[in-house]
Amino acid sequence: MNRLPSSHEDEELSHGGSAPPCKKLRLTKEQSRLLEDSFRQNHTLNPKQKETLAEHLMLRPRQIEVWFQNRRARSKMKQTEMECAYLKRWFGSLTEQNNRLHIEVEELRAMKVGSSTMTSTSSLTMCPRCERVTTAAIPSMAVVDVPAKKLMIPPQEREH
DNA sequence: TCCATACTTAGACTTACGTCA
DNA sequence: ACTGACGTAAGTCTAAGTATG
């Protein structure tokens, strides 16, 4: 069932035969499908479930056990890869946002230079918490709002 | 079309660690 | 506190499958 046509020896072994350890087998599509279904329902199996599944698929319980171990590991690896890719995208978007804000600060400083009566342009600072540009000397005097839509928080993150 | 080779996938094993009786 | 059985994660090996020139 779970074996290449050339060898029914391994097939017997995969069912718990007494011969020496069998060579690596490939599961059939049907076996893989059922295992995947089972994995979707539960990522771990209790001994009874393992036994039942093994019987149903005509595999040794140990094979079921190993399959689930590998499946969990690969599932975790895939999840990590996805998270990594997501964080990279987010980092890119934050960098972009940061660059734009720096440009904006420079523009505002330039504007300040133009209006002679105001405080020194070097006193303009960006509050890291509220994302507003303020004059450090007299904070109450000049507060420039950065529209909330400019904060490029990825949708996935906003949900949480 | 066939073949050799490189690369990928997945079954199996080993080891280390945590939990529990 | 110690011990053995058991389950799991992480790392690794390697046969089998696939892509490529």
Automatic annotation (TrEMBL):
Pfam families noted in UniProt: HALZ, Homeodomain
Family: Belongs to the HD-ZIP homeobox family. Class II subfamily.
InterPro entries cross-referenced by the UniProt entry: HD, HD-ZIP_Homeobox_LZ_Class_II, Homeobox_CS, Homeodomain-like_sf, Leu_zip_homeo
PROSITE patterns hit by this protein: HOMEOBOX_1, HOMEOBOX_2
Keywords, ordered alphabetically: DNA-binding, Homeobox, Nucleus, Transcription, Transcription regulation
One of the record's GO cellular component terms: nucleus
Ranges for region Disordered: 1-25
Protein name listed in UniProt: Homeobox domain-containing protein
A GO molecular-function annotation: DNA-binding transcription factor activity, RNA polymerase II-specific
Main location: nucleus
Superkingdom field: Eukaryota
Matching PANTHER family: HOMEOBOX-LEUCINE ZIPPER PROTEIN ATHB-17 (PTHR45714:SF8), HOMEOBOX-LEUCINE ZIPPER PROTEIN HAT14 (PTHR45714)
DNA-binding region(s), chain positions: 20-79
Signal peptide limits: none
Annotated Homeobox domain residues: 18-78
Subcellular location(s) of the protein: Nucleus
